[in-house]
Specification:
InterPro entries: START-like_dom_sf, START_2. This is START-like domain-containing protein. It holds the Pfam family START_2. Residues 1-126 form the START-like domain. The protein contains 3 helices and 7 strands; from the N terminus they run βααββββββα. It is an alpha+beta fold. The chain has a single domain, classed as 2-Layer Sandwich (Alpha-D-Glucose-1,6-Bisphosphate, Chain A, domain 4). The chain has a 7-stranded antiparallel β-sheet with strand order 1-7-6-5-4-3-2. A hairpin with a 6-residue loop joins β6 (81-87) and β7. α1 (17-25) crosses α2. The longest helix is centred in the last third of the chain and has 19 residues, at 107-125.
Length: 128
């Protein structure tokens, strides 16, 4: 199996961190922008897109700040994706930081996918 490459993205967003956290950490929030539907049982989240399902385990979270998931398909690896809320101490500007992994020839595609999803999130928040 090919090594995946870690990449990070930053998206400035106009929303309060506490509101944003509900959209990144709860099934109902995630289903507003990340997937068509999201269900969870404990730490297991099921993401549904156009009839296909992917399962991910919530491997860590810090209330009001970040969530980190590992796809079940990547269970025996160190790969994960993290959505983190970052607030600038001085300006109080809010950004969403994404950390994800993709195979070398899929990094650009992965970045584009995140850009589209964050754009959807901004629309849901009215922060366009």
């Amino acid at each position: 199996m090919e090594e995946k490459i870690k990449y990070e993205l930053e998206f400035p967003i106009q929303a309060s961190p506490s509101l944003l956290y509900n959209y990144i950490a709860t099934p109902s929030g995630l289903s507003e922008w990340y997937a068509d539907n999201v269900n969870s049982r404990g730490e297991m989240f099921t993401f549904i897109w156009e009839g296909s399902e992917e399962k991910a385990k919530l491997i860590s979270k810090k209330s009001g700040e970040r969530v980190k998931f590992r796809w079940v398909a990547d269970e025996d690896t160190s790969y994960y994706f993290e959505i983190r809320i970052q607030v600038d101490d001085i300006t109080k500007d809010v950004s969403i930081m994404i950390t994800d992994f993709a195979e070398e020839d899929e990094v650009d595609e992965g970045k584009m996918l995140w850009e589209n999803m964050i754009s959807d999130l901004k629309q849901v928040l009215g922060s366009v």
